[in-house]
């Protein structure tokens, strides 16, 4: 796949999401790209670290800032498998990320177009270009399958407890 295409970079974010899934985390992944190079990557670690801020985007942004030695991530594109939440959208704006590309929409918590669009709020001192739906079906399927397995596991445990 062409490295100049959003689908290529989203594929790397999907790989990050699969790392989260392997350790029982919600499968969300992110990569931050500058000048055709991955600067940082992250995947959800909220359950592992028991920290509300351990979202894929937050971890990728934090790592990129340390790596580049600046909090300003201009000329960067963030690829994330799920539409950013309010916390992550705020961090994206504060870090001055120029472009955000996401796969699946989040109708219950998305703040890049679903519930609201903080990334294009003109009252802030920075706006990000937003591209949606890149490899959306793959991203959605990862999440849907994860939550289905989680529900099935809970149902099985409940039935086993009732049998005792």
From TrEMBL:
Gene3D superfamilies named among the record's database cross-references: Cytidine Deaminase, domain 2
Active-site residues, as the UniProt record annotates them: 57
Molecular-function GO term, any one: tRNA-specific adenosine-34 deaminase activity
Superkingdom: Bacteria
Residues noted as binding Zn(2+) in the record, renumbered to the chain: 55, 85, 88
CMP/dCMP-type deaminase domain segment(s): 4-122
Cofactor(s) in the UniProt record: Zn(2+)
Record-linked Pfam families: MafB19-deam
Cofactor notes: Binds 1 zinc ion per subunit.
Keywords, in A-Z order: Hydrolase, Metal-binding, tRNA processing, Zinc
EC number: 3.5.4.33
Keyword Lyase belongs to the record: no
UniProt xrefs under InterPro entries: APOBEC/CMP_deaminase_Zn-bd, CMP_dCMP_dom, Cytidine_deaminase-like, MafB19-deam, tRNA_aden_deaminase
BP terms from Gene Ontology: tRNA wobble adenosine to inosine editing
UniProt catalytic activity: adenosine(34) in tRNA + H2O + H(+) = inosine(34) in tRNA + NH4(+)
Similarity field: Belongs to the cytidine and deoxycytidylate deaminase family. ADAT2 subfamily.
Binding partners and assembly: Homodimer.
Function according to Swiss-Prot or TrEMBL: Catalyzes the deamination of adenosine to inosine at the wobble position 34 of tRNA(Arg2).
Identification of the protein by name: tRNA-specific adenosine deaminase
Gene that specifies this protein: tadA
